[in-house]
Amino acid sequence: MTQTRILLVDDDELVRMALTGFLEQSGFAVTSAANVSEALKLISGTETYDVLLSDLHMPGAGDGLTVVSAMRHVNPKAVTLLLSAFPEMSSAVMAILQQADEILVKPMEMNSLVRIIRERVASGPNRRSDVETVAAILERFTAGTIREWYQRVESEPSLMAVPMTCEERCAQFPILFRDLVLRLNSEQTASAKLLTSSGAAEYGASRFRHGYSASMLADEFRALQLSIFHTLQRNLARIDPSILLSAVMTIADELNAQLSRALKAYAEQTLYVEAVGRLHGAYGG
Q1: Any idea which architecture 134-282 has in CATH?
Q2: Is the backbone of residue 212 left (phi > 0), alpha (psi -120 to 50) or beta?
Q3: pTM for this predicted structure
């Protein structure tokens, strides 16, 4: 009979030794790691594991959630169990922890731990059925995210000093969101140049006509980025942690690309107005 292979991750050497000894006596094959870096190397190596048993809170870069995400990505069939000494955690962290198969509170009775591991291995990983892509979440909450963005803009006196109606300020944003969703769905994370939409350019030209400065345009985009990330934060329980980091990087890259296109269109409008002014001056108005 094949032994169940467990990857144990804990920064406390005494805990690792105690757990390793008891789990091996219970018939499991145990490989241990003292930190997130060691765990990630093992997960990406040639050995495969049936169970990840990781402490949640560890010093240094990353934590148990980082290890869970890596294991989910490399081996989605593995059971993922997190150990935490803090049963009371913020709602945002708890939302992410719902992506693990179970959260166990330390200290835990050893026989109970063995029973849970065997039950989980027998039943298989508990994957949530309501997981959504980041693109689907942003598409579903486009209107709400734009409303939140407008509320942020309303709190900036420098931006509100430029007279515009709510409809005028928000006119291009559904198009910008559509382009962002298309980018996420296309999985073209390396380059935004494939997009041909003129939404960002129209936005930049429109802001020029209304009298924005380039820095004000950039301030609006920062507010947009904050609103988008806030939408994702409220929906963390629905996002597979293994795709979250790449999606956030794609969002940041796409927003930077949109801002660049908007600023380019803004600059072209500036040059056009200056050229017209020089012509008027040359021919006496």
Answers
A1: Orthogonal Bundle (1.10)
A2: beta
A3: 0.54
